[in-house]
Amino acid sequence: MPGPLPGPLPGPLPGPATGPLPGPLAGPPPEPRDRRRRVAVVGIALSDCGRVDGPTPYALHAQAARRALADSGLDRSAIDGFASAGLGTLAPVEVADYLGLRPTWVDSTSVGGSTWEVMAAHAADAIAAGHANAVLLVYGSTARADIKARRRTANLSFGARGPLQFEVPYGHTLISKYAMAARRHMHEYGTTLEQLASVAVQARANAATNPDAMFRDPITVEEVLSGEMIADPFTKLHCCIRSDGGCAVLLAAEDYVPDTAKAPVWILGSGTSVSHTTMSEWDDFTVSPAATSGRLAFERAGLTPADVDVAEVYDAFTYMTLVTLEDLGFCAKGEGGAFVEKGRLLRDGELPVNTDGGGLSACHPGMRGLFLLVEAVRQLRGEAGAGQVTKPGGRLPQVALASGTGGWFCSSGTVILGRE
After folding, report:
1. Where are the beta strands (DSSP E) in 229-315?
2. For 153-174, how does the pLDDT look when each residue is reduced to its tens digit (9 = 90+)?
3. Is the predicted pLDDT of residue 118 greater than 60, yes or no?
4. Is the dihedral of CA 393, 361, 335, 298 positive or negative?
5. CB under 8 Å to 222, separation ≥6 — which residues?
6. What is the CA radius of gyration of the chain?
7. Would the pTM count as exceeding 0.85?
8. Cα end-to-end distance, the chain, whole Å
9. Whole-angstrom distance, CA of residue 353 vs CA of residue 322
10. Nearest alpha-carbon partner for 240 in 251, 231, 248, 249
11. Which of 35, 132, 193, 280 could form a disulfide with 126 if both were Cys (CB 3.0 to 4.6 A apart)?
12. Contacts for 125 with CB less than 8 Å, ≥ 6 apart
């Protein structure tokens, strides 16, 4: 892959969403619509990922954006919407300015790891309603490189202001919050350490076929269990890796699909939900907000979990995968342990999950939710190489799900995508 390409994207500035369609479909204004436009993912890309010591986060944003635009085959002038979070004083204004974009629709929603699924839902609604035509979502982070170079330190707490001030003195780190939730699930339903460890083992097996994954060597349940304790019950391999990297996703109205370079992947349905900030206000440690976002997404798509061929879910910790699959309806509440331990999550399993290796093995530069959308689209397009999921008869997957989680199960966004 070419190196990072900082600076603005090539081409003229995009026009407003009203008036003539920008880019290759320039012409008279569209007639008033009596229906919502369909929305497709038309471009995806990763920046350089893993160990990336040279570029700045802005350069990774630019690199991913350029590659996604090239992947789409559209001209830069088509972009009239922009979504970004996590970088800049006035995100997404600062990042858009760096890329040389002047969008007329913007989103800077920041709800942790689910940010990108929530943004994709917002963008799809805006495009469907005619408020934007093509929206670029882009992310980049040098979290690993910054710590290595001592430009920052690892954060143990999200802050000590507002409601969080009542928990910080008791050592409620991010990891400990997830660990508490996992222990509660173990207490309520008999979930075992071995079942949680099997999630990490299967993620690593999936990463083995991904040349971009940071860790590809196989691991065993015993290795996971015997590792350094981080926060009981999580040992090191129960926890996500820390990497650098970025990615971008371009969504566009159906009007643009004839001019795109590749077959579209359609947004079939989406749902969002928020839950709590303090652990004391969380009604049930064993239920995540994916129980709501997933239900809404399936209802709006007119589908059920049985229709999903590939699932990409946020996995900062092994427990996240297990409980999210329960809450999305792939198994009953309390049965997640038995569900994940039977190899179902493998690329050739009953429900391939995190087919790129996920945050546990592939990459985790921070708010990883956008990577879930990239991998889901790759699978539906048939572009995952040795990691490609195939159905009986060599058929490609038809329906994929991406579900992001933010904070400590504080927020959730679920997006269902399909080839048709």
Report:
1. 229-231, 234-235, 245-253, 265-274, 310-313
2. 666 566 777 888 888 888 788 8
3. yes
4. negative
5. none
6. 20
7. yes
8. 31
9. 11
10. 231
11. 132
12. none
